[in-house]
Amino acid sequence: MQQEREPKVFKRILLKLSGEVLAGTEKHGINSTVIQSLAAQIHKVYDAGIELAIVIGGGNIFRGVKGEGEGLDRTTGDYMGMLATIINGLALQDFLEKEGLVTRLQSAIEIKSVAEPFIRRRLLRHLEKKRIVILAGGTGNPYFTTDTTAALRAIELKADIILKGTKVDGVYEDDPQKDPHAKRYKRLSFMEALQRQLKVMDSTAFSLCMDNKMPIMVFNIEKENSLYSAAMGHRVGTLVDSIKGVEYYGDAG
Questions:
Q1: Enclosing H/E stretch for 13
Q2: Fewer CB in 10 Å around end: N or C, the chain?
Q3: Of 243, 221, 82, 122, which is closest to residue 163 (Cα–Cα)?
Q4: Pairing of strands 238-241, 216-220
């Protein structure tokens, strides 16, 4: 019988937000009500004294892989997707500042009129000064996803964990839409996720996290207070780390 671990409060978090989250119930665009709710959740985490860097996706506006499928050059499409993340970053920054928070937007693609260039030492200084930093522009290179950006930046910042805020409430052993009896993982190891071919992140991002023992928590950020609960170390989704073993929701103990 496994004993429930005590919740842990993290000092520094890398929050990964998919672009689709910003669209809300729509398939495309930016839903201001959703961003306002996200900003309020982020404010609560900030008030708990946790340093927060945010990597934001752009899938609600444009996705490079989709463009390639429609005849667009993949490299061009990926750069278009990176620009979409900057649009999302500006929107999130605006709503965070309406919450009274001090923010900085950094971009891996140089665009000085609206964002600072990504510089690791400057980012660390912002976090030390209790500023929230939004990281846009992906890695600045085509063929890399914002999942990879999140993994890379979390390792560079020596974050305690990556919180992957999505529209799903964790990782399942099978697609719950196809199999309604599929069990949801509470925790599993990197190696087990690989062996079970679970798509926690893309393969490059996942390998970076596994090699550097960077834990990942996948959770539904649309649920009320879910971000705050995750930041306080409560299991609100699925935790993937380097500790062997598997836990499911509903297990005894």
A1: strand 12-17
A2: N
A3: 221
A4: antiparallel
69 Cβ contact list (under 8 Å, min separation 6): none
Whether 61 and 73 have beta carbons less than 8 Å apart is answered as no
Q: How far is CA 211 from CA 144, 151, 214, 219, in A?
A: 18, 11, 8, 22
Burial class (CB in 10 A: 0-12, 13-18, 19+), 40: middle
Residue 172 per-residue DSSP state: B
Compute the distance between CA of residue 139 and CA of residue 184 in angstroms, rounded to an integer: 31
Domain 12-248 bears CATH identifier 3.40.1160.10: yes
Cα–Cα separations (whole angstroms), residue 180 to 22, 37, 174, 186, 214: 27, 30, 9, 17, 31
3-state DSSP call for residue 186?
Answer: strand
- Picking from 194, 207, 250, 205, the residue whose alpha carbon sits closest to that of residue 55 is 205
CA atoms within 13 A on the CB side of 160: 13
Tally Cβ neighbours within 10 Å of residue 114: 13
For the stretch 174-209, pLDDT in tens is 888 888 889 999 999 999 999 998 989 999 999 999
Amino acid at 104: R
**Distance from C-alpha of 130 to C-alpha of 109, rounded to nearest angstrom:** 24
Q: Which residue's structure tokens are 């998919």?
A: 18
Could you tell me the pTM of the whole model?
0.92
Instruction: Please state whether beta strands 161-166 and 246-248 pair in parallel, antiparallel, or not at all (unpaired).
Output: unpaired
